[in-house]
Amino acid sequence: MKEKNNNEVLRVENLKKYFPVGKSLFASIFSGKEEYVRAVDDVSFSVKEGEILGFVGESGCGKTTMGRTILRLVEPTSGKIYYKGTEVISLSKKRLKSLRRRMQMIFQDPYGSLNPRRTVAETLRQTIKIHKLVNSKAEEETLIKKTLEEVELKPVGEFWDKYPGFLSGGQLQRVSAGRVLILQPKFIVADEPVSMLDVSVRVGVLDLLLRMRNKFGISFIYITHDLATARYVCDRIAIMYLGKIVEIAQTEDIINKPLHPYTQALISAVPVPDPTVKIHDLPIKGYLSLTSDLVSSSCRFYPRCPYATKKCHEEEPPLVQGERDHYVACINYRKSKSVY
Amino acid sequence: MALLEVKNLKVYYFTRKGTAKAVDGVNFSIDKNETLGLIGESGCGKTTTALSLMRFVTPPGRIVKGKIVFDGRDIISMSNEEIRLLRGKEISIVFQAAQNALNPVMTIEKQISEGILEHESITEDEALERAKNQLNLVGIGDERSKSYPHELSGGMKQRVMIAMATVCNPKLLILDEPVTGLDVIVQRQILSLINDLRAKLHLTIVIIAHDLSVIAETCDKIAVMYAGKIVEQASAVSLYKNPMHPYSQALIKAYPSIKGEKKKLKSIPGAPPRLVNPPPGCKFHPRCSYAADICRKKEPIIREKEGHLVACHLN
After folding, report:
1. What interface predicted TM-score (ipTM) does this complex get?
2. Which of A200, A201, A205, A282 to mutate to test the interface with B (most CBs of B within 10 A)?
């Protein structure tokens, strides 16, 4: 992933975010070593203009922390983040604010991320005010109207004075998208934007994201635990496990030719909406461990991996190119490929 | 013979804004050892239907009409004492997000044994022993029986809830959104567990979900609910292969899958109707792409067609 690319919107290099683990007073005095949860551990990737890159993993794998760190909602421990060549981490608060217009976020919970005491129009007006987007009242009204039409809250008059309590989850998520879109961003982190919505309206919101990409060339990081929706919107998918990217490739390659044993397990676990398909047993065992005392020199998936060997315990596999545009972090990926 | 028969069930919530007809004339029956899936969007009345089966509906809600016949007895006319003996012993429920309902200051074996002691006259030690066996059955080793809920992951807590619900060998088990909010891998483990227990304990199960794939992997029979009514009911395979109601068709078309070719999906326009003031005629007509004049005026009656029960004028 070293190649330079001019239409790159975002580039992340060796990003790390460690959270210190709370200890008792006794332990902190007498044991010198600090302990950490390595939520994001040495992650590197880039996003091209108009690309939707998915991050898929179980709860606790660090995908949300990573999304927040990129926007500096959480300060990283180390690493570099470039937005169109500008280094983001060393920016001052003031310069960061002007950049925030270009880098935005859509949150998971539309019920919690909108102010219940503001109408739809007031919510958008607030954003306009903070970023001083217009000069006159009339312009403001036009902009709000245009934005609501863009996110398909039509007829606009019907939604203008509605409070969030009167809207469905799908409609609220459209308001969230509108609040972001009004800033004309170039890059959006969408953190599980449809996981709290009914299946029947999910596709509508996903189609909205796709349209925002197609029409305005916005790049996305789409964070989810659901491979099926990731397949629907993403150009590329990165699979995360305990703070690391274990595999990254074009979407259809991840779905049809997964190389990492964890990706294979994730795919076989996704329920299929067809009663004639037989359920297979999962190839992996156990649960995602959240302990901080991981051996740093072993593969993190080692305790659950069906193909684990002694070597996996001894060295941490680097992310290497398996096939074209297909990177995997597994020592015996050739072996696991032949098994499946 | 049917273990459970629900006839013309109506459950209304009497709110200040008016009467919300959460369940409005629902009929279904479940045979022994059968698994029924109730599917629909939020607010379609599926949870209220499940709560009524154990008479858990509380004011402002009330069962206003209908019959629920369980094993030959009518649940609606039972005394409070009779229903108390039934709950947990003959019919059990695992509520949605029930993992959070575990008592944080009591070990899990103790919480499971409480249920047994409530219904059976055995000693506390015997009950704890049974609790341990039950934990083994749901895939939690008995070495964890003295754990507190905070020491367990979400998936394990859900296993504990299922252990608790099945410890008295109930005849009917109700699972309300059993895997919502869990990770895919844990989801798969819980679904396998449900299928396992069903075979081992000869359970009859009602599963409530908004997720088609969860229902597809576990149920024999599916009832699709919309705005308080069942709009289509059929065997699982037939409903997926040949959905007749436009709403069932739309639900299936809206569902992304990772198997096979990538398909263009179609969302259902609009939102489910408010139950206080639903549209006249067929309640689905404002969102239905086939809606005709009659759909706006007259409410369709559910009737049989090619092995399905379907409520649509155009079918």
Report:
1. 0.82
2. A200
CATH architecture for the domain at B2-90+170-310: 3-Layer(aba) Sandwich (3.40)
Q: What is the pLDDT of residue B105?
A: 93
**What are the strands of the beta sheet with A103-106, ordered from one edge?**
A103-106, A187-191, A219-224, A52-56, A236-241, A244-250, A326-328, A320-323
Does pTM surpass 0.90?
no
Domains defined for chain A, CATH in brackets: 8-115+185-339 (3.40.50.300)
CB contact under 8 A, B156 and A277: no
pLDDT in tens, B132-174: 999 999 988 888 899 999 888 888 899 999 999 999 999 999 9
A263 → chain B, closest CA residue: B185
Q: From the list A58, A201, A203, which residue is nearest B183 (CB)?
A: A58
**Residue B236, token pair as written in the block:** 């699982």
Distance from CA of A280 to the nearest CA of B (A): 9
Amino acid at position A65, single letter: T
| Nearest C-alpha neighbor of B245 from the set B150, B161, B312 | B312
Angle of helix B184-201 relative to helix A261-269, nearest 10 degrees? 50
CA–CA separation, B208 vs B49, rounded Å?
A: 10
Comparing A31-40, A184-193, B202-211, the range with the smallest average pLDDT is: A31-40
B217 interfaces chain A, CB cutoff of 8 Å? yes
| Domain segments of chain B as ranges | 2-90+170-310
What are the tokens at A14?
């060796």
Taking the CA atoms of residue A194, residue A198, residue A202 and residue A205 in that order, the dihedral angle to the nearest 10 degrees is -70
Partners of residue A82 on adjacent β-strands = A11, A87
Residues 6+ apart with CB under 8 A from A206: A194, A229, A232, A233, B265
**B255 to chain A: nearest residue by CA?**
A199
B276 at A interface, C-beta within 8 A? no
Whether A252 has its CB under 8 Å from any CB of chain B: the answer is yes
Give residue A2's pLDDT: 44
Structure confidence by residue, pLDDT tens digits, B190-223: 999 999 999 999 999 999 998 888 898 899 999 9
